Amino acid sequence: MGNRVKYNITGDNLQFVHVEFGPGEMAWAEAGAMVYMSGNVTMNAKARGGLMSGFKRVLTGESFFVTEFSAEGGPGVAAFAGRVPGKITAIDLRGGKQWIFQKDAFLAAESAVNMDIAFQKRLGAVFFGGEGLILQRFWGEGNVFVHAPGDLIEYDLRPGQSLKVSSGHAVGWESTVTYDIQTVGGIKTAFFGGEGLFVTTLTGPGKVLLQSMTLGKLATALVPFLPGQTSGGSSFTFRP
Questions:
Q1: Are the beta carbons of 152 and 91 closer than 8 angstroms?
Q2: Does any domain span residue 192?
Q3: Which of 125, 157, 171, 180 is deepest in the core (most CB within 10 A)?
Q4: Are residues 79 and 16 in contact, defined by beta-carbon separation less than 8 angstroms?
Q5: How far apart are CA 240 and CA 237, in angstroms?
Q6: pTM here?
Q7: Residue 108 lies in a domain
Q8: Cα–Cα distance for residue pair 169/166, rounded to 1 Å
């Protein structure tokens, strides 16, 4: 995709990433992420990396196929968006960087970016970390675009510097960052502090990406407003 893809992220909490590419250049995205594309852009479903890579994507919750986008006869543009309100950010992997992301963060990437699965190394992280057993590892000479609910903030941790994060709020981190799970305070703090029993501890060196809202918390906040739910002493049942 050339030396550096041109892109523009627009919007507030329902963002698009607009990716521009010339003839012979290509981008790829998760199935269903495309919002619009110029008339000279074609898209093809591919088992990128072969059958084994396709099966690995399925293990992380992605589709077996990804969609590849390319322009013909001149420059083209394609725009991608996430499935829920949130933010999009571009992570530059050039220079040998590797990032680990929670399995639903990937949105799109340049053609030179590769993806593989990454397993949690500690059982505590698997059961109590909020990210699950299988994560996604990205590397290559290009940008990967990730999406997560809420707002995003990036921290650059120094060697030995740690950050304690409420479980599920860690979107991703550089492969140089150590990831672990720790209990919070005492029993009273755990049960009455409102933060749960465990926190995610990220230790540098390296960058970490955090989100202000998890998909689980968003779903929980919406439950009282869904048809058929009872809230405030009244009940409403939806009938089509």
A1: no
A2: yes
A3: 171
A4: yes
A5: 10
A6: 0.79
A7: yes
A8: 6
The alpha carbon of residue 184 and the mean position of all alpha carbons in its chain are separated, in whole angstroms, by 26
- In sequence order, the β-bridge partners of residue 63 are none
- Look up residue 33 and give its two tokens: 């992420």
Q: What are the backbone dihedrals phi and psi of residue 228, each rounded to the nearest 5 degrees, phi first?
A: 90, -5
- Contact between residue 116 and residue 124 where contact means Cβ atoms under 8 Å apart: no
- β-pairing, 26-29 with 106-110? antiparallel
In a domain, 239, yes or no: no
237 belongs to a structural domain: no
- Whole-angstrom distance, CA of residue 152 vs CA of residue 136: 18
Cβ proximity of 205 and 159 under 8 Å:
yes
Decide if pLDDT at 5 tops 80: no
C-alpha to C-alpha distance for 165 and 149, rounded to whole angstroms: 16
Contact residues for 46 (Cβ-Cβ < 8 A; gap 6+): 28, 65, 66, 67, 68
d(CA 209, CA 157): 11
Dist. CA 98–CA 114, nearest whole Å = 10
SS3 string of 90-127?
EEECCCCCEEEECCCCEEEEECCEEEEEEECCCHHHHH
**CATH code of the domain in which 212 resides:** 3.60.160.10
Instruction: Write out the residue range of the structural domain in which residue 60 sits.
Output: 6-221
Please report which confidence band the pLDDT of residue 1 belongs to, taking 50, 70 and 90 as the band edges: very low
